[in-house]
Amino acid sequence: MAADTGFSDVPAEAWYAEAAVWCRDHGMMSGTSGNTFSPSAVMTRAMLAAVLYRAAGSPAVTGNADFSDVPADAYYNRAVNWASANRIISGYGSRLFGSNAPVTREQAAAILWRYDGSPAAERGTDFADESSIASYAGQAVDWVRAEGIISGVDGNRFVPRGQATRAQVAVILHRYLTRGTAVTPPADNAQSEDTASGISSQDSVSRSTDFDLEKGTVTLNNGIEMPILGIGTYTLSSEQAENSVYWALRDGYRLIDTARIYGNEEGVGRGIRRAIDEGLVTRGEIFVTTKMWTSDYENGAAAIDASLRRLGLDYIDLMILHHSQPGSDVGAYQAMEQAVSEGKLRSIGLSNYYTAADFDRLVNAAAIPPALLQNETHPHYQSTAMKEHLKQYGTVLESWYPLGGRGHTQELFNDSTISSIAAAHGKTPAQVLLRWHLQAGNIAIPGSSSEAHIQENFEIFDFALTDAEMQRIAAMDQNRRHSSY
Ligand code: NAD
Fold it and tell me: What is the pLDDT of residue 165?
């Protein structure tokens, strides 16, 4: 291994260093800019098409698959046409290729398997999560495991919907294209090697959902940076929302949460424009979330356009489905996926999915894994099991009712644990609760129409709760929601 990989973000001793250098030297994966490789960036479908196309020697391409999300001048245009003509990566239907959708582990297996000509493979991998591997990927997963190309992660799980990073794809390709040479890991070693070397989706996921408490941001599973503290606007009139949003942006907030059912998207839009007009922020610096209401699920595309119009924006940073609604939420989610490819939405996610099974029902029908799940979460209902479940998708949790919710805040403010921790830090109970959310890995969006409270709620980056204090608050969990909403 060369002492210097030539990439400033690929240390020579990294588990993927040899693969990254090999892929670069064989003209398959170049850096992302200048001398960086961005090993933990998630691999998108378009990127994987381009990489495999290069691996195949960039053959001439005839015809055009006419995907609506593959611009004629995109660097991946020829690669996508080649991949789809050769049935290596197909589109989703509705003229959608899913260019920006992250590649999951089972998709990576299936794509590589098809690239190899779909060789016969013996069934029976016996992964603990075998039943959740999609039927199209079953044989491919058996094959990649037998070939030592992709193996399971800890606990003998394949984690089919875990996302592949650029470093993982480099290692997968390196293994695949150098099979039979000395560097090929023996299949029976592959699992321990994967775990030790970090080719486990758990690892990539814990990186992608780590909060940066200095910057106040988290990188979502689609590579987009999102602020971790924002202003909520539930129950605010349009006029109140306009002021709250304006004050919040002035005080340093960059995240705003609204919903079509709150009836205040217009006010939120006005507050944003006021702050932009006064030069306090630029559009690119702020992150606007809205939600699609259940009665709009049958007409998702129109609902997205209507929210854009009311907000007065030409894109929304994050749109989420407001509630689980089996029967119509999958169609609504697909409308949001389509809007991502059209540039109307940058990220998409869910709200109010309270069981792993319900969350998976939606995710299993989705091409783009949810970036975020917004659920009621506070010290009495800490969402611990759900957060653990979300890790495999790199989905981050956002807390609504972070202070306990209107009508319940005093219960938490007056709690002896919270008030004694607040006194120890010279902070208010609200500030302790919000700081707890961030340190626990929950994005928080406290709601308020009070100028003073809005300011107070943002002053939580100048102190930290100790491990012991975090544990005392963890002990307050009663698995009890304050709302039945
Ligand atoms: P919250 O827990 O943020 O509590 C809000 C209450 O706390 C209000 O009564 C407010 O006046 C008070 N408050 C705020 N800051 C305070 C302070 N520093 N000191 C004393 N009191 C303070 O509840 P919420 O606003 O309902 O929830 C937060 C946000 O989450 C909402 O505004 C909304 O954007 C979102 N939300 C989403 C859903 C959903 O279904 N997805 C449901 C409810 C709320």
Answer: 82
